[in-house]
Specification:
seven-stranded parallel sheet; Aldehyde Dehydrogenase, Chain A, domain 2; Aldehyde Dehydrogenase, Chain A, domain 1; four-stranded parallel sheet; alpha/beta; homodimer; 14 helices
Chain lengths: ~425, ~425
């Protein structure tokens, strides 16, 4: 097993050296050919996928799990469209991020380059396979994929289809790689190969991510969880606050950027909370409120200490009435996860105070935390959302998959 | 011990929340007061420093070691000048790195913010104490310092002097912190506190850095070593090549950006090597050459396999004659450390090929690798040089000590 994994890592490193200098045209041509191959091989992919679905059902996986796993023609076309979309995105490699001349005449250019070899550890969502391959390829990185064992047949089918198409277009053979061994030990071993792999991006639930961080000798960019807050200030437009909070909680509650806790200024609570909670209840949202909330609205469950800071990922909302902006900031600082937090207010001073002091990847004024997303930001894609502060923060796409180098042009200058 | 370290980490995190929003004016005022305090307390600092020097001598440390440790009036003034220089640098915090509007009217600003809490693990160079405090303060980060035990009295004296001055200027008390416990276990424990510390920067030899990487649960930005190459191409200006190579090797051989291996194109070797090696030998440089080098120049020691890839940090140079640019790139790819590598050539195509394909933080054309340095780059300071590719690469100063956040301004936009 070890030799197999190490050979893959070596191949990936070898390929990454060529990939970094591949032309945009060649990368795009390969991406389009890969998209066509996916559609052409739909029958084969579906056949392999059916094996995974049967297995998942046989071991008693939930219907939601099996649904995420399933690939039909529509989903395969969607994966292919994803590849075509990445082909249309601007190539980040070679961008001159900054350029300046020193008094001694040295010209310094800060140039965007690929990171090198990226390892992706993910759960059983076969569409992640093609997503990550396309984004890493366009950003000039070699990639090593390790997906969940429940989707292994689907992953192999997608991977082999894409690989064959890419190699016909002349891409280096180690450009993308799939660890086909499903033992747990293979992941642990991979995470120790810091001589070959430059970055690990885990994609999945918190347990998976904590496990990766625990074992990795390679830098990890991670997304632990999104406990997102919306604070309705005393100077909020109540009508806007109702719509934005409803959107943040209800539009897609299972996502990391959905609101989990709503904070309400006490001087607006009596006007705002009764109508707001009614709207939530009509949509099936369970409210867990603080004592003050329960005085204003009847029939609200008492929030437990553990409800603050919980990522429900469901139609459940914790609600707290706060004395002022200061208490709202203190609450978010204590229970937040540095993902996305919003303030609803017409008061510019309060808004800037909130946006400056809340330590989160994305801080919002008068809009929904649901906008934390690579596509919504205009990045055209997303490989994940970072809750880290090192390298990349918030939505990550092609630029975030790059590092940089300095090119220094001289004419014989010497250092004194 | 553990409680002491954890209290420091908590204080630092608390302080970092205020530091991130401190005005430039307040930070600069503190830096100038701190500079004055250093000079005013020179007698106290020298007295404490003398204790360290006596101890270092008593345990048989080398005279070079003791010299690096020693603080006289000149060095104290230099530290103070360093603080004043950092006060003059542009404040990176709050910079709008990018700003754009989405079709739905959302205004997105990418804004530079401090990283948070930075831990610095260093050896026995007391000037690092004031350097790191000033750079972290100006970039809005709280800092936790842990220096070598041989300079503990000096570090405490500098730290207490700076802290008193800073607190008179109203800086939060946990802004900078020194771990005064000298046990090895204190470092290991510190490296596990990923809930409080955002980044570790080790400063010192390779052994120290490997140790830090081994134990850290916190992201580490590191500098392993600099095995820097200069490749003298067939189209080099020989006169320029002689001067640049001499500068890269001899001007300050003990630094990480000094040249350790010189590669020479075989078609220029006979013209270039005899005069070049004579010049090196006159300056006391020991040459260790490949077989081809030894055929051209007599009296050259045979290079062993282990000489390629060795960071001599001394007047020793490995020399290899290569067939072409391709072999030069292959050699550097195999033995280099992604730090700094140079090509000397008048051939533009060869130059771009080299600069694009060499995977190093800094790639130079027709100049000395010795220019890899924050001050030489015009950053005004340097907290270290990163040989990593994640977050920061090459010289690191104020901007590299920052992360970013997205501020998103809406008018009630909802996600569909």
């Amino acid at each position: 097993m070890k030799q197999e994994v190490i050979n893959i890592a070596k191949q990936a490193q070898e390929a990454s050296r060529a990939l970094g200098n591949l032309s945009t045209e060649k990368k795009n041509k390969a991406l389009l050919a890969m998209a066509n191959a996916l559609v052409k091989n739909a029958a084969y992919i579906k056949k392999e996928n059916a094996k995974d679905a049967r297995f998942a059902k046989s071991i008693g996986k939930s219907s939601a799990f099996v649904d995420r796993l399933l690939l039909d023609d529509k989903r395969i076309v969607k994966m292919a469209d994803g590849l075509r979309q990445v082909a249309r995105l601007k190539d980040p490699v070679g961008d001159i991020m900054k350029s300046w001349k020193r008094p001694n005449g040295l010209l310094i250019k800060k140039v965007r380059v690929p990171i090198g070899v990226i390892g992706i550890i993910y759960e059983s969502r076969p569409d992640v396979t093609s997503d990550c391959i396309s984004l890493c390829l366009k950003s000039g990185n070699a990639v090593i994929l390790r997906g969940g064992k429940e989707s292994i047949h689907s992953n192999i089918a997608i991977f082999e289809t894409l690989k064959k198409a890419a190699s016909k277009c002349g891409l280096p053979s180690g450009s993308f790689n799939l660890i086909k061994r499903t033992e747990h030990e293979a992941v642990k071993f991979l995470l120790g190969l810091n001589d070959y792999i430059d970055l690990i991006i885990p994609r999945g639930g918190e347990a998976l991510i904590r496990e990766v961080v625990k074992y990795s000798k390679i830098p990890v960019i991670k997304h632990y969880k999104g406990v997102c807050h919306t604070y309705v200030d005393k100077d909020a437009d109540i009508n806007m606050a109702m719509k934005v909070c409803f959107n943040a909680k209800v539009q897609r509650p299972a996502t990391c950027n959905a609101m989990e806790t709503m904070l309400v200024h006490e001087s607006i609570a009596k006007k705002f909370l009764p109508a707001m909670t009614r709207k939530f209840k009509d949509a099936g949202v369970e409210i867990r409120g603080c004592a003050k909330t329960r005085k204003i609205v009847s029939g609200v469950k008492q929030a437990k200490e553990s409800d603050w800071g919980t990522e429900f990922l469901a139609l459940i909302l914790a609600v707290k009435v706060v004395k002022n902006l200061e208490e709202a900031i203190a609450h978010i600082t204590r229970y937040g996860t540095k993902h996305s937090d919003a303030i609803i207010t017409r008061n510019k001073k309060a808004a800037e105070e909130f946006l400056n002091r809340i330590d989160a990847a994305c801080v919002f004024l008068n809009t929904s935390t649901r906008f934390t997303d690579g596509n919504q930001f205009g990045m055209g894609a997303e490989i994940g959302i970072s809750t880290d502060k090192i390298h990349a923060r918030g939505p990550m796409a092609l630029e975030e998959l790059c590092s940089y180098k300095y090119k220094i042009y001289g004419k014989g200058q010497l250092r004194n």
